[in-house]
């Protein structure tokens, strides 16, 4: 109810609360969706709009409804009022389809206007890079993305907030309020003939003048039509840069601040009058329409080109199918020829295989005969080699037996020598014990015989030393005899091992030994 009442108020449409209640009588549970409200909006509000409403106030109401939900929460370099004006400009420049977007060409147009209003140079390369990045991801920007782009300062670096705000306001006045030109000038009164400074605003069919540029105190209008004209006046009454606006009922004398402003105003008014005579819309609307028609033309050309490409592609596919059919026919003919060639080659191969098998069979028979001859020769050679090996083994066995026999003889000799040495050692030990007993007996003799015994003892000790020396000599001889006995024993073990190995070999080749025995 509140939304409908406010819409009716802003659009100058009489509000009918009874119709509202009747429309939603059967659907009073829960909230109303966009789709549910649109039929009522179209039938009871939008169809009654006559066009005699303040579009800025209508836009401001729509902005109030959607800005809080959609406007970016990140800090922007523009005020909320400037964001509202950018939003209204977006609605003017956007495409006539939902969801609303502004295409890169219109973004470029808007940014150029802003840059020109700020008095800065247009950075075409920077925008081209931005355009490339934009085209890769989407077709255009939404209203809120455009506000964020302007508010980020990406294309207004080095400009302060006031300059950007003034530029947005100037573009807003031109595109939305249809302000073709505005500025301070002096106007001559009709009654008192005095000159008063006024703020003039030129629109497509009217020139309004105010006390100041805040547009709060409006002093009058100059209605323009195709019969109006403007002409320059010479300087008079101390006033310079004069020009006259002639209408059907009244004329207005105006003084500009300088010649340049005078010429600009004369040119702007003449252009406006010419458009009124031709029935043409304002320049910015005409330019927008031309840009839109150009885009539609390019789109139609692109669609036509795509259609032609599809036709060419279809024709190409048909040609491809025909070529594929011809190729398959050629492949079938080639396959038949290949099959015949294959059969001929197969017959030839079978004949070759038959001849090859016969040759291979003859070769195998010859090879078997050669292998048998070689095997017999090899067996004969092995037999002769075994005979030679056995003869050599017999000789080596005899030599080993001789060595073993000699080793046994040496062992016997050493054993006898060892026994003799042991016997001599035993005799010496008995003699030494006997001398020791005699010495003990001599000690017990009387003191008178002590000297004599002492002399005899000395003699016997000398004899004992000689005997000990002889005993040591015998001990050395016994050790040498033992070493010789160990060497003879090792030789005997070696000879025994050799004899045993030769016996094993002889036992292994016993059959061959029997073969070469006499008889």
UniProtKB/TrEMBL annotation:
The keyword Cell membrane applies. One of its GO terms (cellular component) is lamellipodium. Phosphatidylinositol 3,4,5-trisphosphate-dependent guanine nucleotide exchange factor (GEF) which, independently of RAS, transduces signals from tyrosine kinase receptors to RAC. It also mediates signaling of membrane ruffling. Regulates the actin cytoskeleton as an effector or adapter protein in response to agonist stimulated phosphatidylinositol (3,4)-bisphosphate production and cell protrusion. It is found in: Cell membrane; Cell projection, Lamellipodium; Cytoplasm; Nucleus. The lineage of its organism: Eukaryota, Metazoa, Chordata, Craniata, Vertebrata. The keyword Lipoprotein does not apply. This is Switch-associated protein 70. It comes from Penelope pileata. Keywords: Cell membrane, Cell projection, Coiled coil, Cytoplasm, DNA-binding, Membrane, Nucleus, Phosphoprotein. InterPro entries: EF-hand_SWAP70_N (IPR057836), PH-like_dom_sf (IPR011993), PH_domain (IPR001849), PH_SWAP70 (IPR057837). It holds the Pfam family PH. GO terms for molecular function: DNA binding. It comes from the Eukaryota. The gene is Swap70. Residues 178-274 form the PH domain.
């Amino acid at each position: 109810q509140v939304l409908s009442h406010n819409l009716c108020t802003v659009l100058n449409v009489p509000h009918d609360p009874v119709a509202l209640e009747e429309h939603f009588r059967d659907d009073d549970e829960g909230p109303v969706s966009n789709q549910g409200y649109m039929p009522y909006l179209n039938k009871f509000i939008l169809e009654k709009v006559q066009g005699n409403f303040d579009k800025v106030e209508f836009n401001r109401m729509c902005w109030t409804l959607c800005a809080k939900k959609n406007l970016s929460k990140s800090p922007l370099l523009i005020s909320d009022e400037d964001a509202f004006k950018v939003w209204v400009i977006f609605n003017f420049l956007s495409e006539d389809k939902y969801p609303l977007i502004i295409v890169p060409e219109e973004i470029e147009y808007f940014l150029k206007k802003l840059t020109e209003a700020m008095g800065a140079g247009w950075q075409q390369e920077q925008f081209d890079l931005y355009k490339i990045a934009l085209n890769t991801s989407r077709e255009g920007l939404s209203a809120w993305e455009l506000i964020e782009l302007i508010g980020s300062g990406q294309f207004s670096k080095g400009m302060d907030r006031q300059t950007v705000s003034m530029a947005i306001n100037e573009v807003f006045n031109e595109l939305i309020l249809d302000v073709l030109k505005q500025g301070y000038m002096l106007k001559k009164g009709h009654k008192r003939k005095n000159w008063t400074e006024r703020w003039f605003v030129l629109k497509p069919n009217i020139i309004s003048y105010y006390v100041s540029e805040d547009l709060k105190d409006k002093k009058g209008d100059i209605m323009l039509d195709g019969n109006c004209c403007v002409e320059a006046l010479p300087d008079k009454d101390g006033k310079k840069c004069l020009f006259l606006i002639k209408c059907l009922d009244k004329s207005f004398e105006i003084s500009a601040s300088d010649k340049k402003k005078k010429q600009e105003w004369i040119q702007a008014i003449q252009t406006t009058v010419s458009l009124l005579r031709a029935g043409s819309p304002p320049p910015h609307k005409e330019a927008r329409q031309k840009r839109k028609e150009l885009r539609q033309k390019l789109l139609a050309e692109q669609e036509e080109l795509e259609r032609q490409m599809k036709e060419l592609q279809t024709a190409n596919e048909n040609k491809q199918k025909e070529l594929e059919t011809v190729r398959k026919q050629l492949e079938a003919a080639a396959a038949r020829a290949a099959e015949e060639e294959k059969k001929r080659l197969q017959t030839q191969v079978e004949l070759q295989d038959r001849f090859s098998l016969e040759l291979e069979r003859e070769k195998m028979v010859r090879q078997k005969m050669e292998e048998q001859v070689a095997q017999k020769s090899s067996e004969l050679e092995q037999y002769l080699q075994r005979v030679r090996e056995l003869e050599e083994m017999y000789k080596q066995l005899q030599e080993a037996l001789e060595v073993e026999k000699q080793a046994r003889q040496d062992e016997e000799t050493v054993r006898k020598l060892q026994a003799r040495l042991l016997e001599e050692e035993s005799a010496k030990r008995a003699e030494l014990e006997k001398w020791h007993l005699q010495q003990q007996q001599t000690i017990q003799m009387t003191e008178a015989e002590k000297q004599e015994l002492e002399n005899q003892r000395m003699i016997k000790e000398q004899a004992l030393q000689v005997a000990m020396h002889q005993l040591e000599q015998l001990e050395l001889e016994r050790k040498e005899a033992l070493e010789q006995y160990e060497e003879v024993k090792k030789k005997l073990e070696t000879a025994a091992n050799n004899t045993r190995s030769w016996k094993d070999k002889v036992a292994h080749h016993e059959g061959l030994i029997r073969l070469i025995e006499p008889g």
